């Protein structure tokens, strides 16, 4: 047995119980707000023993979750506002016309959007890729017969799943795990290639099979209806001439293409890349509002922004309480409650270490443990916060069985990022859900079976590679 010296307390067990409850409520399609708030309160009361501090802790957790998610909220609001003016002026229809001639079937839409998302995400990470790709390709996919939920799944699985879990170009993820495991980054990247390919193929194929079944059954809304609308708004006639629409339909893709060039030249990624996309979207919104609405352009600009912000906060409203609960498991604990218990590395990390400390040392158990530890640490919704723990445990297991440290490290990295990087945890996959106007909770449910099947198959492959 591998002893890690971690003592689990009431805090840890309350957290585990409420994770199970939240997952159960989501599976049953029930709202998780009440159960999340109750979990926050009980953790706070167990940690402090102070009723006043615990009540305050609920509010503090909401403030913390909102501040952590704010940049994502803003980019979604702005992109939605820009999309509104594109729809209202009819520019959107002109922009997507060339793609509609090529993408004729749901299958072609799913795989084309997925592969484009994966390639863009390799270079700039998924969040800006969603913003760049989603607004343009969503109408094309819907006209080809792929429901909005299917578009969101494709962007999630290929971008936040395949591209982010391998991170072959930017190498942020393998650098973190490799440093923690004490091995070269190149070893982790090399070991992750067959695992990322396996995970990617299994997950996306299973997802497509299930999606095609749902399309045949007619059980999916073609247009996203999370904001209560059942159809795409028709453009307002007379705002722009045909020539003006064509001009802007060319100008806007060029503007975003220049964003891509700027990302490459100035090595922008993650938040910086998202910021330049958001700034460009604001400028486009202002330009089109003033050009199309002329004398009422000032008021219309504000109106479009209000629509964007209303939608953004409607999407995030149900997510903030559950995000607040899960943030307590890691980075949020210090800000919301205070000092951690003596010897604790954070609730989530403690659980991962404790799990690793009570399993027998065989290569099969080592793989299962690293997959489980990675998945547990991914529950905080970042995907990255727990991968250093996965690297550390992979080093311990690899040393103990005298083999497979790089493969174990890669497996923990893949599990953490697929769960927490944006395919299963609802607030992590909000960018794709919001762009496609679908419920993040419904998207998480649709991703669940493909991702779990993928993790099982990939874990089996990892056992043979050690």
From TrEMBL:
Q: Which domain of life is it from?
A: Bacteria
The entry's protein name is: Transporter
Chain segments annotated as transmembrane: 6-27, 34-56, 62-86, 107-125, 131-150, 157-176, 188-211, 247-267, 273-292, 304-328, 415-436, 448-465
Q: Does the keyword Cytoplasm apply?
A: no
Q: Which organism is it from?
A: Ureibacillus acetophenoni
Protein keywords: Membrane, Transmembrane, Transmembrane helix
Q: Does the keyword rRNA-binding apply?
A: no
């Amino acid at each position: 047995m591998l002893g890690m010296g971690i003592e689990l307390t009431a805090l840890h067990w309350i957290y585990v119980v409420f994770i199970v409850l939240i997952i159960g409520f989501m599976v049953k399609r029930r709202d998780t707000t009440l159960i999340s708030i109750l979990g926050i309160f009980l953790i706070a009361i167990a940690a402090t023993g102070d009723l006043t501090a615990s009540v305050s802790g609920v509010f503090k957790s909401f403030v913390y979750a909102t501040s952590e998610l704010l940049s994502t909220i803003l980019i979604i609001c702005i992109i939605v506002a820009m999309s509104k003016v594109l729809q209202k002026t009819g520019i959107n229809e002109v922009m997507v016309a060339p793609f509609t001639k090529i993408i004729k079937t749901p299958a072609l839409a799913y795989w084309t959007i997925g592969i484009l998302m994966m390639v863009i995400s390799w270079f700039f990470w998924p969040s800006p890729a969603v913003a760049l790709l989603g607004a343009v390709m969503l109408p094309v996919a819907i006209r080809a017969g792929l429901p909005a939920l299917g578009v969101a799944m494709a962007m999630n699985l290929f971008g936040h799943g395949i591209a982010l879990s391998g991170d072959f170009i930017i190498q942020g993820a393998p650098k973190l795990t490799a440093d923690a495991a004490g091995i070269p980054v190149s070893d982790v990247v090399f070991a992750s290639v067959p695992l990322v390919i396996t995970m990617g193929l299994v997950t996306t194929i299973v997802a497509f099979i299930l999606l095609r079944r749902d399309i045949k059954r007619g059980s999916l809304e073609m247009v996203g209806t999370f904001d209560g609308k059942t159809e795409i708004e028709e453009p307002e006639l007379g705002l722009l001439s045909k020539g003006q629409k064509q001009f802007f339909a060319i100008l806007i893709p060029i503007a975003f293409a220049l964003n891509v060039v700027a990302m490459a030249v100035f090595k922008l990624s993650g938040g910086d890349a998202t910021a330049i996309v958001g700034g460009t979207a604001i400028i486009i919104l202002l330009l089109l509002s003033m050009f199309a609405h002329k004398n009422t352009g000032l008021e219309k600009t504000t109106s479009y922004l209000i629509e964007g912000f209303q939608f953004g906060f409607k999407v995030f409203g149900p997510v903030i309480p559950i995000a607040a609960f899960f943030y307590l498991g890691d980075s949020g604990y210090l800000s919301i409650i205070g000092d951690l218990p003596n010897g604790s590395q954070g609730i989530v990390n403690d659980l991962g270490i404790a799990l690793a400390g009570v399993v027998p040392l065989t290569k099969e158990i080592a793989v299962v443990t690293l997959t489980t530890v990675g998945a547990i640490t991914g529950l905080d919704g970042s995907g990255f916060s727990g991968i250093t723990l996965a690297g550390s445990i992979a080093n311990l297991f690899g040393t103990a069985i005298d083999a497979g440290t790089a493969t174990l490290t890669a497996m923990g990295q893949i599990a953490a990022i697929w769960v927490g990087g944006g395919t299963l945890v609802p607030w992590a996959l909000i960018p794709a859900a919001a762009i496609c106007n679908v419920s993040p909770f419904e998207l998480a449910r649709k991703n669940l079976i493909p991702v779990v099947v993928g993790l099982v198959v990939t874990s089996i492959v990892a056992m043979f590679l050690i």
